[in-house]
Amino acid sequence: MERVFTYQLDDVLYINLTNRCTNACTFCIRNEYDGLNGQKLWLEEEPNAKEIIAEIKDPKAYPEIVFCGYGEPTERLEVLKEVARYIKEKDGITRLNTNGHGSIINNRDIVPELKDLIDVVSVSLNAGTKEEYDRLSRPVFPNAFFAVQDFIKESAKTFKKTIATVVEIPGEAQDIDSARRLAESLGAEFRVRIYE
Questions:
Q1: pLDDT tens digits, residue range 36-56?
Q2: Fewest CB within 10 A of the end CB: N or C in the chain?
Q3: Are 126 and 137 in contact (CB under 8 A)?
Q4: pTM, whole model, 2 decimals?
Q5: Is residue 165 within 8 Å of residue 193, measured between CB atoms?
Q6: For the chain, which domains are there?
Q7: Rounded distance between C-alpha atoms, residue 84 and residue 117, angstroms
Q8: Bridge partners of residue 36, in order along the sequence
Q9: 91: left (phi over 0), alpha (psi -120 to 50) or beta
């Protein structure tokens, strides 16, 4: 498999910033595979901003450029901001896929720093209660569930669109309705993702 920092699915470009993550989700693709669609996503070393920008070339060539990673992209906040700044300067559209831990990872509210750099935020809410969240997401931070709620609430006030997501896991007892109610109470759209 080819080692890449960016990869394309349909017309969308995804940026793989890091393997590091503050969750160990029971349903994570990383538990089974080190890549996707024939591309190795598990990074031997993390890319710098220049390497990523070199792979993007023209941001307007894509309907959207997504910061994701085989880990949590806000672990590399400064690189994320530098690349996002380049994309926005070239009139590109950006999305951040995140577990919502960015502010506790970086010990400050990072939402204001991303205000003019990110268009859409998709946050893995994963559950409607702390008990279910901790069971499915297995976060390293004991109060992660509440930090995720704060991140969603601030994001909903700040970005053009904020989506809170839950992965529907076959055979798993989940209360998706409670997650939907929570997401909507925080001002976010809600989406159920298909388990892959």
A1: 555 666 678 899 999 999 999
A2: C
A3: yes
A4: 0.91
A5: yes
A6: 2-194 (3.20.20.70)
A7: 6
A8: 39
A9: left
